[in-house]
Amino acid sequence: MSVAAVTGRPWGEPPTGLPLRWSDPAVGGAVVAPPYLLTTAVFDGSEPTGLVQYGVHTHEDALLVWPHAGSMTLHTADAVRRLVPGQGVWVPPGTPHASAADPGGVGCYTYVTRAAAPADWSAPRALRVERALQEMLLHLDVTPMDDGLRLRTQRVILELLQDDPLPALDVPVPEDWRIRGLAHEVLGDPEGDLSLEELAARHGLSVRTVTRAFAQDVGMPFTRWRALVRMSGAITLLSQGQPVNLVAHRCGYSTTSAFSAAFRRVTGASPTEYLRGL
Fold first, then answer.
1. What is the rounded distance in angstroms from the CA atom of residue 153 to the CA atom of residue 131?
2. pTM summary value
3. What is the pLDDT of residue 29?
4. In this structure, are strands 26-27 and 57-58 parallel, antiparallel, or unpaired?
5. Is the peptide bond before 35 cis (omega within 30 degrees of 0)?
6. Is residue 84 within 8 Å of residue 50, measured between CB atoms?
7. Do residues 153 and 143 lie in contact, with contact meaning Cβ atoms separated by under 8 Å?
8. Are strands 97-101 and 38-43 parallel, antiparallel or unpaired?
9. Which residues contact 15 (CB under 8 A, 6 or more apart)?
10. How far apart are CA 270 and CA 235, in angstroms?
């Protein structure tokens, strides 16, 4: 069984199932009403408690994308990120993106006013969104309270946001049209065991072309890029409680030891250590 079979769709696939169009993105999402600093929309696959927009779009305010349960997939123009509880990604104002909770997941979108956003957070960045912080955000979303108390709580929440030492893995998406088809095949089937030579032949490319294109466009060898794809999917499966040996098999590794060694090379931690950090 593949990662796609467990999560409901290939994790590199856009939330709408249609190709993402990055030119002329729409402007959408919830609006933070003055004098407040933030608001949170929750989407569990039924009806959102705030306005959630699919497809490529931007926001006037900043956005914190984080899952409360299950997993989420966030697309930006140059990368795909799979998020599990404890992880979040900061999306600066005006940044085109598309995201959705995976089947069975609960995805949350916290909109933060430009005035309250840290001035130096000008690019997407991984943040730790611990359980206590999640509950505070959800509590604010559904609980009436005095404006003064609400604003004080929102300020505390913004102070608690911190860089994540175990961030979501950013998987770069190639811009070179020659290798995009090959890249999307790997994203859609992380457990695939086709060699570089076989993948290149399937897409009418030479190994030399693929190797050079990944080095120039993505900034890393194809083998490391594919390891990133596999480990991103593995983190989701591990967070669901799947045994390490089963995750290793589903991510294309013949032995648990080979998978664990690859996981440590990519994340700097063993599978168990990584989950404990979350």
1. 16
2. 0.75
3. 74
4. parallel
5. yes
6. no
7. no
8. unpaired
9. 54, 55, 73, 75, 98, 99, 100
10. 11
State which amino acid sits at residue 218.
V
3-163 CATH, one of 2.60.120.10, 3.20.20.240, 3.90.78.10, 2.40.30.170: 2.60.120.10
- Report the topology of domain 175-277: Arc Repressor Mutant, subunit A (1.10.10)
Q: What residue type is assigned to position 132 of the chain?
A: A
Place of tokens 């080095």: 215
Q: Copy the structure tokens of residue 177.
A: 């049209």
Residue 262 C-alpha from the chain's centroid = 20
Q: Do residues 263 and 274 touch, judged by C-beta distance below 8 A?
A: yes
The three-state secondary structure class of 53 is coil
Question: Which run of H or of E encompasses 74?
Answer: strand 72-76
pLDDT, residue 134, reads: 93
What lies within 8 Å, CB to CB, of 35 at 6+ separation is 147, 151
Which residues face 53 on adjacent strands? Answer: none
81-113 residue pLDDT tens: 888 888 899 999 999 998 888 777 889 999 999
Distance CA 218, CA 172 (A): 6
Q: How many Å apart are CA 82 and CA 211, to the nearest integer?
A: 25
Query: In angstroms, rounded to a whole number, what is the distance separating the alpha carbons of residues 99 and 104?
Result: 15
Residue 240 and residue 70: Cα distance in Å, rounded?
Answer: 7
